[in-house]
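Whiteboard transcription, Tuesday session. T.W. wrote the structure tokens on the left side:
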């Protein structure tokens, strides 16, 4: 497992982390690790765009096709 060391964390941030860690019955380090694990599992906008591009390659579906489908769907709802 890798180590991570943080410096110059603002005191108000540390105070909130201490409080949240205490409420979750863990240490600040354990709580910070949990936050980092959760964040690392979230997909970024850039990753979502790249996945979308990879999924649409060779499909023959264009942006205009998608917009047309959206417009048709909205028209049926009205």
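and on the right, the sequence the group agreed on:
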């Amino acid at each position: 497992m890798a180590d991570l060391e943080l410096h110059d964390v603002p005191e108000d941030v540390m105070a909130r982390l201490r409080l949240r860690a205490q409420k979750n019955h863990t240490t600040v380090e354990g709580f910070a690790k949990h936050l980092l694990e959760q964040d690392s599992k979230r997909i970024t906008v850039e990753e979502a765009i790249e996945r979308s591009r990879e999924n649409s390659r060779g499909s023959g579906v264009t942006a205009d096709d998608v917009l047309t489908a959206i417009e048709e769907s909205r028209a049926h709802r009205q």
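Someone added at the bottom: The chain has two domains: 11-41, 45-77.
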